[in-house]
Amino acid sequence: MYTKDARVTYARLISTQDDAQQQERQIKKAYKESISKNSSDIIDISIQQTTVSTKQKVKKNLRSLSESNLVEQKYESHFKSCPSLSFEWLINMKKDDENISNPFCSNLLTILSGSASGLASIGLQNLVKRYTNISLPDDDKLAWQIIEPHFSQGPPRIRLETVFDIIQQYIDPNLSLLDVLMTDTPTIDRSHYILAMLAIKCTVITTNYDHLIEDAGRFHLGNDSNIIPFNVFCTEEHFKKGYDLINTSISPNLIGLWKIHGTVAIWKNQQRVLVRADEDGGPIATLKRLSLTRESIERRRFLHYLLETRPFIIINYSATDDFDVTRWLKTVKVPLNVLWIQHIDNLLEPIIWNGIDIANGIPNNITSFDRGLIAMACTWHERGIADRLIVVTTSDSIGFLIEITHLNTYTEKYHMDKTDSNEEYPLSLPTRWQCYIVSGAMLSHLSYFSEAKRYFDYATHISIEGTREYCIARLAAAEASIEIGDRIGRIQAMNDAVDTAETAPLSLSSWSKTKSKYISAKVKRFVEKDGQAIAIEELQELLNQCGKPEDNRSGQERNVALEAAILLAQLRRYLPSSPEPSDIAKLWIDSIPHIGLLHTKGMNLHESALNKYQLATNIEEIDDAINVMKEAIEIREKLGHMRGLVASLNVLGSMQMRRSDWNISFDMTYIKYAVEQFRRSIEYSDKHASIFDQFQARIHLVVCLFRYPSIRNTIEELQELLNYFQTNITDDLRTQIESEFCLAMSIFTNTTLSLEEMCDNSEELFNKLVDKYTSNNDVRLIRILAAARFNAELCKDWKQGQVHTPNLELTRDIITRKTDKNINAYWHMRILHAETQIPLNIYDRLQLLLDPISP
Fold it and tell me: Is residue 301 over pLDDT 60?
């Protein structure tokens, strides 16, 4: 019997010759069964025209992993370092004296493999350095010197898909650099051979888009090198048919190699055919493609079905596919049992861990584990399913896989040097313009907007006006200027964008005009007196001119339209009295979750969470808003969208702080969460964001420290934050009002003043704030200025020792923001507290004062 918390270690035993022969017969039998399945249960893969080989040689004796030996704890030294291991998933599968590996040696097994060795041999860093190892004429510092640390540090962290996005957008529309994967530079290794063997008898999923597993099968597992001896699936149609088969068959035959991120080539008519990045079945190597794959119901349910119904092994996978595969792994309902083989150097024997141990950080070498594995274990632990995950750490991942699946690998042991002999596709040397434009794009992605603009400006300078290069570089410089955030720079950016669109070449005319209109609306929002209303009108016009989302427009124009749609939705939240969007504008807004790029989806999730937050009437609804905002944060952090990230962190912290207020006694756990978000926001905004973001991060933290002084790091922390408001300037109206609001509240932290002096000084500052500013119909400013009036009246009442006298008009402005829509339950609760309680000390007064931050 196996106890749930048995401490275990791994013990290897050499199987007897009889056992090896019996296992060999089982493998052959399973293989024959796999190729004699009824054809009605097999997916049509005519595009591949592959044939399954009927010959497989198996001769090598096999070493097995015995469950009984695990429990015997034969090696005491390893026993002492092992975690507590829940064998619940093993108990569920156990029959008589079954071996632990038995579930993993049938054709129902699923393998998920990553480790794109082909791509690793290209060297992502070398590719980026190739384009960014350049400096500006007036600066010796190379762009590469700024960029390089972000390969290992973040956020923002450099992603492969981001690099390919930039290369595709500016340099190589067909991403022909992926042709390098077609060369003999990447070579077949043991892992490809083992995965090819497994693809013959079970389901193998890979995130790689090279062709090395297929080549291992052609060269080493069949009689004809022109035939792949297993089925290969990579297109949307393949996954759709797989999904349909799951829904219509009790035990669907899904044997073969499933390339969930597409492929660089298919095997057709006994020869390899290139598949470009934007073709169906092509490599999902860019954020644009990932944005679509993320919404693939067929791929997600395909993976979930296998996780929930079949033994599942994950090997050589870093789990950094944050937007699709890793996300789907985290969200599976209840997995059957998952074995994750984690490579760790210099281990004498494999060590087995439970998923709960990983989530709790128990292994002393946890820093060597893949970050994606740790994140998945934590997510499963929160959901109560981490006991379904077993992690084996080993220095020989493929060797462990061979043993657990009882594979015989003797036949081709001495022939692994066999490779294809295709001609290599060298990358041409980049031009100066390409170096400057890619450097600017990489720096912009990393939120170094000032540095990025300088590179874009120089790319413009060395281009000829009216050419494609000039148009692209100047519009990129304009967008960087807007992100930098100063008023003069934004106005200049708007003018530059308009001028550029007028001189753009015919091939870019439509896109550049759409882009310049979007830039103009963004700038007018900040610099015009009624900027938000003007921007709403211009965005409506832009979307109407774009036509319906399904109309045949270029990908670039469609992306601009989607960004315009999300900005329109955001501005209408601030100005709900503005005209209703047109039918076409509504179509664009509704299409964002389905066809928007990932950063647009992040913006959309942020807006959705804010709407839920403002309408929340209880803790459960706030929790719902928190979960949506966490999803927005995950996307923005993984993308490295720093300005969006700090905005989402601020709102998440606000939600967590307000959630605590809903409890009868404050829940300090959520207050600590809130402070963590605000401090992260300050750290990131100081490094990568504008003065506006730096102000906003500090405003949120100051309010939290006012209301919950016990969480301050030091006595000086609050004063340092208040000094920031007095020594820095922002040109954003709301931010200026909010910072002055905080300074008015800070009077009550001055313990040298009497109660009457505190009330007099604070009342004066709040009244000045109300007299100084107008709302311009912005619902946020309506509430903030009404809250300032309320606080001024509150101070006056406190001097007289009485509760606040109700003011229905003022209350209405705060809880409805002068709209006829829903009442904000949170502010209604706060006002009721202020109108029924008399503060006894400074802490009570800061609790009862209204503050300027959301909802």
Answer: yes
* 561, two tokens: 């339209």
Residue 392 CA: distances (Å) to CA of 92, 218, 318:
19, 31, 14
Tell me which range, 57-61, 266-270, 697-701, is most confidently predicted by mean pLDDT.
Answer: 697-701
Whether the CB-CB separation of 761 and 743 falls below 8 Å is answered with no
User: How far is the CA of 61 from the CAs of 24, 102, 239, in angstroms?
Assistant: 9, 17, 37
d(CA 526, CA 482): 10
Phi and psi of 664, rounded to 5°?
Answer: -60, -45
- Contacts by residues 674-682 (CB-CB < 8 Å, ≥ 24 positions apart): 674/704, 675/701, 675/704, 675/711, 677/649, 677/650, 677/652, 677/653, 678/649, 678/650, 678/653, 678/704, 680/649, 681/646, 681/649, 681/650, 681/653
CA 735 to chain centre: 28
Q: Which candidate, 530, 538, 537, places its Cα nearest to that of 497? A: 538
- Of the candidates 709, 706, 594, 694, the one whose C-alpha atom is nearest the C-alpha of residue 649 is 694
| Torsion angle in degrees (nearest 10) through CA of 442, 447, 449, 455 | -10
∠ CA 330-335-340, rounded to 5°: 70
Q: What does the mean pLDDT of the chain come to? A: 82
Strands 389-394 and 351-354: antiparallel
| Confidence at residue 319, expressed as pLDDT on a 0 to 100 scale | 82
pLDDT top residue among 574 and 7: 574
Distances in Å between the Cα of 9 and the Cα atoms of 67, 75, 138, 339, 396 are 10, 7, 61, 15, 16
Q: Write out 126-147 in H/E/C secondary structure.
A: HHHHHHHCCCCCCCCCCHHHHH
How deeply is 822 buried, as exposed, middle or buried, from its count of CB atoms within 10 A (0-12, 13-18, 19+)?
exposed
Of 85-89, 286-290, 701-705, give the lowest mean pLDDT range: 85-89
> Are the C-beta atoms of 636 and 644 separated by less than 8 Å?
yes
- DSSP code at position 368: G
Q: Can you tell me the distance from the alpha carbon of 833 to that of 835, in angstroms, rounded to the nearest whole number? A: 5
Please give the Cα distance from 399 to 389 (Å, whole number).
20
Q: What's the pLDDT score for residue 667?
A: 75
Nearest to 456 by CA among 411, 419, 496: 496
For residue 776, how far is the Cα from the chain centroid?
36
Question: What pLDDT, in 10s, does the model give residues 117-150?
Answer: 445 545 788 889 999 999 999 888 999 999 999 9
CA 179 and chain centroid, separation: 27
Question: Tell me, what's the pLDDT at 427?
Answer: 63
Q: What percent of the chain has pLDDT over 90?
A: 50
Residues facing residue 356 across a β-bridge: none
- Span 596-621, average pLDDT: 90
Residue 783: pLDDT over 60: yes
Q: Alpha-carbon distance 580 to 567, whole Å? A: 14
For 158, left (φ over 0), alpha (ψ -120 to 50), or beta?
beta
pLDDT per residue over 515-543, tens digit each?
999 999 999 988 888 888 999 999 999 99
Can you tell me the distance from the alpha carbon of 270 to that of 282, in angstroms, rounded to the nearest whole number?
Answer: 19
Give burial (CB, 10 Å; 0-12/13-18/19+) of 364.
Answer: exposed
Residue 432: count of CB within 10 angstroms of its CB: 11
